[in-house]
Every structure is written in structure tokens, then in C-alpha cells.
Write a structure and sequence with these properties.
The structure is a single chain. It contains twelve helices and two strands, in the order αββααααααααααα. It has about 270 residues and is mainly α. It has two domains: about 40 residues, no CATH class; about 210 residues, MetI-like fold. A two-stranded antiparallel sheet has the order 1-2. Helix 1 packs across helix 12, helix 7 packs across helix 9 and helix 8 packs antiparallel against helix 9.
């Protein structure tokens, strides 16, 4: 229901509508083309090859063991990144939003840096830091680098929920004799759970899709799926890449859609 003092928004100009449709078309039409191409395969006919609907490229994709190994590795890296970034992000958001300590504003400002920093710089900085510490590159360095930039998304998402949190609920639970741990488990955690899940899913998606940071921090034998796709594209496109890209588009869209629903549904 519209509030009485809220004025209705003016209708957008026709030029704004055209520009918006054009911008989204430039973004979505290539994705749609990839999905469509993945469902067509050449079939011999009297006049030559004819492209007909087929699932052949998906069948070949699932038979490719190397792609399957890189897919499993990417899922493992994304899962570990999501768990670690969520644990650190929730505790960091609670500290930044609820505690008072020297350097709090400075640390809060640092959480925004990975959001605006180019991934190329993040990747170079990560590999230089690992080399300085003498850490051998591998899956563990990919996870640590991914946690570095995914952590910011979790912190910002959870802090946004905590900023609108009604602390009187926690105070009421404490007045009824609940310990700080019980207050967190029974009151705070359930109310901020949608923000935590949204941040975790965002961290998973960002880690799974990342290429640049993985490229700089991966060691021998630890290529992720985006890296494998890049190496395949260098020698020419094939329809297996279209099929895999279509699956990634669907998975990413579902993950981001669920994350958005959780954020909007609870106004976080």
C-alpha cells in the first residue's frame, strides 16, 4: 500500500526506455545466442550439413573427464570460499556494527576496497604476497585469494541487515534471562539469516566465475573451470563450450536470483 505522503513516480521518458532496452539487449542477446547454439548440431542431409535441434554437445560435455575434474575443483574452491568468507564476514560485520574500537572506521573503509579494486590488481597483489611469504601456489592459494575479495560482499550484506536491526528484541530476550549466546542463537541469528545466506551465495557465485585472480594464484594442476575454458577458446570455439557456458549461465542466474529474493524479501 502506498503511503499518503509518498508522491507517485513520474513515468520515464520514451528515450530512457529505448536506451534501457538497447543496453539490456547488448548484454542479454549474446547470452541467449550461446544458449540457442548449444542445442543445435550438424546432421548430414542430401544438400550437405543441416543444423537441427540436438543434445549432442551436452552429451559430449558430460563425457569429457578433464572438464569434469575442473568443474569439481571449481565447485570445491567456491564452497570453501563461501564457508570461510561467510564465517569471517559475519563476525566482521558484527564487530564493525556493534563494537567500538580504535581503527573501526578505517577497517570499515577497507571492506569497500576489493569492490572497487580491479581484479587484475588483486591477482597481482595476491601472487606477489604469496611469493613474499614463500607459499607454494595451489588450490589453497586460490581459496585464500577468493576469500579476500568475497569477504567484502558478505560484510556489506550482513552490515546492511544489522543496520536496520531492532535491538529491542535482543534487550527483551536478555531481560528474560537469556545469556548472550542464547540471544545470538535464538534472536539475532534467525533475523540476519537471510542476509547470511545471500552473502554466502554471492561469495560462491563470485568464486566459481572468477578467472583473473585464479589465473594468477593457481599452481600446476589446479586449473579451475574458467581457466580451462580460456585454454580451450585459445585453440578455437567448439559447441561443448557453448553447452558448458549455457549451464554456467543457468546456475549463476539461479544463484543470483535466490540471493536477490532473500535480500528483497527481508529488506536487507
Amino acid at each position: 500500500m502506498r503511503k499518503r505522503d509518498e508522491k507517485p513516480r513520474p513515468a520515464p521518458h520514451i528515450a530512457a526506455k529505448i536506451i534501457t532496452v538497447g543496453a539490456f539487449s547488448l548484454l542479454l542477446i549474446p547470452l541467449l545466442a550461446v544458449v540457442i547454439y548449444s542445442f543445435f548440431a550438424p546432421v548430414s542431409a542430401a544438400g550437405g550439413l543441416v543444423w537441427r535441434p540436438s543434445l549432442m554437445w551436452y552429451e559430449r560435455l558430460f563425457q569429457d573427464q578433464l572438464l569434469g575434474q575442473t568443474l569439481i575443483l571449481s565447485l570445491q574452491v567456491a564452497a570453501m570460499t563461501s564457508v570461510l568468507a561467510t564465517l569471517l564476514g559475519v563476525t566482521g560485520a558484527m564487530a564493525l556494527e556493534r563494537a567500538q574500537f580504535p581503527g573501526r572506521r578505517f577497517l570499515a573503509s577497507l571492506t569497500v576496497v576489493p569492490l572497487v579494486m580491479p581484479e587484475l590488481v588483486m591477482g597481482l597483489a595476491s601472487v606477489i604476497w604469496f611469493a613474499f611469504l614463500g607459499v607454494r601456489l595451489g588450490v589453497h592459494t586460490i581459496v585464500m585469494a577468493h576469500v579476500t575479495f568475497a569477504l567484502s560482499y558478505v560484510v556489506i550484506t550482513v552490515r546492511a541487515r544489522l543496520a536496520d536491526f531492532d535491538t529491542s528484541l535482543e534487550e527483551a530476550a536478555a531481560d528474560l534471562g537469556a545469556t548472550p549466546g542464547q540471544v545470538f542463537r535464538t534472536v539475532t541469528l534467525p533475523l540476519i539469516a537471510p542476509a547470511i545466506v545471500a552473502g554466502a551465495m554471492m561469495a560462491f557465485t563470485l568464486s566459481f566465475d572468477d578467472f583473473l585472480i585464479s589465473f594468477f594464484t593457481a599452481g600446476a594442476g589446479s586449473d579451475t573451470l574458467p581457466m580451462r575454458l580460456y585454454s580451450m577458446i585459445r585453440f578455437g570455439l567448439n559447441r561443448e563450450i557453448y553447452a558448458l557456458s549455457s549451464l554456467l549461465i543457468f546456475v549463476t542466474a539461479i544463484g543470483m536470483g535466490v540471493s536477490y529474493k532473500l535480500r528483497v524479501g527481508r529488506k536487507i
